[in-house]
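Listing S7. Sequence submitted for prediction.
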Amino acid sequence: MYMPQLGLGTFRLQGQAAIDSVGTGLELGYRHIDTAQIYGNELEVGQALAASGVPRREVYLTTKIWTENLAFDKLAASLKDSLHKLQVEQVDLALIHWPSPGAAVSVAESMQALLAAREAGLTGAIGVSNFPVTLMREAADAVGAANIATNQVELHPYLQNRSVAAFAGAAGIHVTAYMPLAYGKVMEDPVIGAIARRHGATPAQVTLAWLLAKGYAVIPSSTRRENLAGNLQARSLVLSLDDSAAIDALDVQDGGGRLVSPDFAPQWD
């Protein structure tokens, strides 16, 4: 199944908030839902999906394998547990959520385990998340770049991850932008605000349209119906070259705009 470019993220959504967000999103027309083992909400995402009435085949569903499950002898079992919680026979995409801390499990081992899970029918596609260029190269060497559906990375106006995006593009690996609204920072940005006013749009819509125009998938999250509906409208917003250049210029050099970097993160580009 083809990944819809605009999806719904569920990071930090727990319990009824997760059920409501996913349920509302599906009602509004979202057909790409992103979760992860570590989010602790796969059960709720599955409940919302089952209750929605939307046929399973119409929803692109992603989950991510947590670091403690990356060994070859653990990955498939953990993915089967995710499928049970999600109430599905297969996810559309399974990602390595973070590279193994301290390289305790090699990239080659975890990628080969993920490929085996795909061949066993547990997932339709495989990919990675939070992989810098060096580890993307290792992943491609292990299973072939053609088998890597996406690299999901933090990407927004203040962290544009240009080296990762360039490498991915050259290798034919799609990029998915998480935290695309920079924890809401874009809402207060004067440059983005001015563009939004010119287009009669919101800063969130402008930012998402900017990312979509670059060919990235985006997975913003929200618990508010109006924001979920508004984000969908970004698909029809066309920015000018000057608009895009102005947002391009917001990039903070040397990764200074990064918001997510746990102590086990890889060496960033």
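Caption to Listing S7: primary sequence and predicted structure tokens for the chain studied. The chain has ten helices and eight strands. Residues 72-86 form the longest helix (15 residues).
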